[in-house]
Amino acid sequence: MGQQTIIKLVDGNLMPQLGIGVWQASNEQVVKAIDTALNVGYRSIDTAAIYHNETGVGKALRESCIPREEVFITTKLWNDRHQDAKTALQESLDRLQLEYIDLFLIHWPVPQQDKYVETWKQFIELKESGLVRSIGVCNFHIEHLQKLFSETGIVPAINQIELHPLMQQRQLHSWNATHHIITESWSPLSRGGKGVFDHPLVESLAIKYDKTPAQIVIRWHLDSGMIAIPKSVTPSRIKENFDVFDFRLEKEDLTIMAGLDIGKRLGPNPDTYNLTVLNLG
User: Fold this and answer.
1) Does the N-terminal or the C-terminal CB of the chain have fewer CB atoms within 10 Å?
2) Which family does it belong to (predicted)?
3) Which top CATH class is 4-189+223-242?
4) Burial class (CB in 10 A: 0-12, 13-18, 19+), 149
C-alpha cells in the first residue's frame, strides 16, 4: 500500500484524506472495526453523538497502541442541541474519554429551527477554548454557508455532504473550494455501491487499473480533492477501502466518472430536514 495523503485545512490543521465512518455500527462493532482500521493504517475516525457509538470509539482508542495525537477524531452536534453546543460537546468528550476533538461538526443546518448561526458562534468559542481543534459543518448548502460567513467572518474548515458518483454536487463542491472549505463525502460509495459498482464505466476502470469498483470510487474522491469516509465493519472491506494509495486515476477517467452524475440523493434534503429525534432502529 502507498502512503496515506493528508489535507491541510483552512485553519492550518492537518487531516487524513481517507477515514473510516461508523454510522449504524454498534459500540461492540465499532471497537472491532476501529482495531482493524488502525492496524491497516487509517488514522481518521468519523462518529457523531446521534450514532450512539462514541463510547465504542473511545474504547477502541484506549485499547490501541497508537498515540492519541496520531488519530484524527470527528464527532458531530445533533439537531436538538443547537443552543447548547458546549454542554453537548462535553458529553461527547466524556463518552469518548478524550480531552479534545480534532473536528466538531454541526450535523444539519435545520433551517426551520434557524439557530445554526448562533450554534456556529458557539463553535468558534469552543475552538478558541482548545476543546476542539477544527470546526465545520455537515449538509450545508451555499446559502447556509454564506449566512455563516456574513455573520461571523469565519468559514467552516469542512463541509461534510452526501457525495458519490450518482450525486456529485459539483456546484457546491466548487463553491466550497473557492472559499477554502474542504468537501468531505459521506456515503462516498453510494450505500454499498448500488448502481455504481456494476456500472459499465466503473467496471471498465476497475479492469484498467486492476482494482475493485469500490477502490476506483474512493480514488475518484481523493483525486477530486475530497475527503472520504467509507463506512464498513467488515475487516476485508476495511482493508480493501484503504488500498488506494498506489495509483491515481488519469484525467480522462475523472471526466468519465463525471458522466455518472444523475443527482440521485440517498439521504434527506438539508433544506427540508428538521428532525430532532432520530430512531436508528
Assistant:
1) C
2) Belongs to the aldo/keto reductase family.
3) alpha beta
4) middle
